[in-house]
Specification:
The chain has a 7-stranded antiparallel sheet with strand order 2-6-7-1-5-4-3. The protein folds into 2 domains: about 180 residues, no CATH class; about 220 residues, no CATH class. The longest helix has about 35 residues. It is α+β, with helices and mostly antiparallel strands. The model has no long low-confidence stretch (mean pLDDT about 90). The chain contains 11 helices and 16 strands. The chain is globular.
Length: about 400
């Protein structure tokens, strides 16, 4: 299996300058390749330029511009071109599926924040000596950069990536390792129901409160964004030091909220994996759930629109994004795979409207957001707990059907 590791780098002032130039030169290569594809399609009889053609031009580009392109790793430049090729592949795939995707865009110097080295030892070297307390990563054109390795890397390092987040620099490794030993069996099974009031409720009657990290930091983030909006819009090279500090403050607050969500998701998923052998959850279509409502034109007043609940839907969408369900489910699947646990997604329809006692399904069974009261048998319980019980039962049925 492949596992990723992310470590904080501690570069010197000179190495920070070299890393910044490396990102800028790879960004220039990305934008140049994108421009070539656009020009070829528009002006040369709709000709499509592929990755193989652009990769073959790298040798000539490095000879023509040795100062900007010739000093960096050849394989890392190939990875940058593959990154562009993946963007076009995804664009055409969505077009064939009937979606309306955006065309791949040019990247600004602050938008291009990652350089990948596809193979350890080719333009980079992860140097983690067991008896050396200081870990370093060697990067072509930059040198040996100190790394704060807070945990051991298990397995053989396959790829190395350098990433910039604000003023911090990180190295991201992917290592190939054997399947770890599964956790001891507990015999526990659980179904979970994701929500807004509670982050999740389980079929055993427990619940995890929603931390609402975005809402708790909303006031400070709003003040920082208002301070940033007061600066006039000028060219990037004309911006003042105060403007740059305002941008960094907004980015810092967003980064804090993101780390808080990740920390909560990791701890919640780990607790579920340690205590249960089987976990069932709702197969949520989060993108569809967070779509904006369709405008309703007023037939009596051309150019006017009828109320469509957009304000309330905006608040709900913000709460869904703040909960971070998608990130949590991804982390849960990863931890379950490592621990040898089984996770199954089930259809969420009517899980909170079906009585777990008699099976009666009706909208009236849920008179309020928190209350479930069956109109057929009179069973009463918390609505989220009822949903989790039904999710667990559907998951067990699906597991038995798959093993049959």
């Amino acid at each position: 299996m492949i596992r990723a590791y992310k470590f904080l780098m501690r570069p010197t002032v000179g190495q920070v300058a070299a890393l910044t130039v490396m990102l800028a030169d790879h960004c220039s290569l990305y934008n140049g390749a994108l421009q070539e594809r656009r020009d070829a399609y528009r002006h040369v009889s709709k000709t499509s330029v592929k990755y193989g053609q652009q990769s073959a031009q790298l040798k000539d580009i490095r000879v023509f511009d040795p100062e900007r392109q010739g000093r960096w790793s050849f394989s890392s430049q190939q990875a940058t071109l593959r990154r562009l090729d993946k963007a076009f592949t995804a664009f055409f795939r969505r077009m064939k599926a009937g979606d309306t995707p955006g065309y791949p865009r040019f990247r600004g110097v602050n938008w291009f924040d990652t350089v990948e080295f596809p193979r350890d030892g080719d333009g980079c070297r992860w140097d983690a000596t067991p008896h050396d307390p200081v870990t370093r990563v060697r990067l072509q054109g930059v040198g040996h950069v100190k790394v704060h390795q807070h945990r051991a890397v298990v397995g053989k390092v396959k790829t190395v990536s350098v990433k910039r987040e604000g003023r911090k620099w990180f190295v991201v490794l992917t290592a190939e390792q054997e399947q770890p030993e599964p956790l001891p069996a507990t015999g526990g099974v659980v179904g979970i129901d994701m929500g807004i009031v509670n982050f999740l409720a389980d079929s055993n009657g427990g619940s995890v409160p929603n931390p609402r990290h975005g809402r708790r930091n909303a006031n400070r983030l709003e003040a920082a964004q208002q301070a940033l909006a007061r600066f006039p819009r000028v060219r990037r090279d004309k911006r003042t030091a105060n403007h740059r500090r305002a941008v960094e403050k907004v980015a810092k607050l967003h980064g804090k909220v993101r780390r808080q969500r990740l920390d909560h998701a990791h701890k919640t998923a780990l607790a579920l994996v340690r205590e249960h052998d089987f976990i069932a959850h709702e197969d949520l279509k989060i993108r569809n759930m967070s779509k904006s409502p369709v405008p309703k034109p007023d037939p009596d007043k051309p150019g006017s629109f009828l109320p469509n609940g957009a304000a309330a839907k905006t608040g709900l969408n913000r709460s869904i994004s703040d909960a971070g369900w998608g990130v949590f489910l991804t982390i849960l699947m990863s931890k379950a795979e490592s621990a040898g646990r089984e996770v199954i997604a089930v259809d969420p329809r009517n899980t909170s409207r079906r009585c777990p006692e008699c099976g009666h399904t009706a909208k009236e069974n849920r008179p309020t957001q928190d209350t479930f009261h069956c109109t057929a048998c009179g069973h009463t319980a918390h609505a989220d707990t009822v949903g989790a019980v039904n999710v667990l039962r559907a998951g067990l049925v699906r597991r038995n059907a798959n093993t049959a």
